[in-house]
Amino acid sequence: MNQKSRVLCILLLLTFFLTINAKLKRIIRSGRRIHRHVPQYPRRQERTRLDCRAHENYVRCGPEPHCEMSCDNLYSPPHCYHAKNHPKCYYPRCICSKGFIRNRIGFCVREWKCPQRLFNYISQNPNFELFFQIF
């Protein structure tokens, strides 16, 4: 390498490092962090007794959310073991009272109010329409 090539190479490297340094200072001043994106797990929805709605009971050691009966798993109920002294105890939450199941929007309703069961209930109960006309 001749003298001109060395000087040119040194100038290019110096320019490169000064540019990188200026960008880093700008990023540090703006408050952004330089790191890989770490995925955030969804926050669990811990609740108190006051958060429970109609037909819900508060439990300090609730089951996993997917273990609760719902309109979506009506014909294939989850097979989860739940007891207060179970070592795999989950967070405090509100669960549906006995005889109620969770619908798609999160409320506890009677089983026959699920869209899948409504047709069966109407066909088996002739007084269903009369009941809704009264209320």
From TrEMBL:
Pfam families: TIL. GO terms for molecular function: serine-type endopeptidase inhibitor activity. Keywords: Protease inhibitor, Serine protease inhibitor, Signal. Residues 52-114 form the TIL domain. Residues 1-22 form the signal peptide. CDD domains: TIL. This is TIL domain-containing protein. It comes from Thelazia callipaeda.
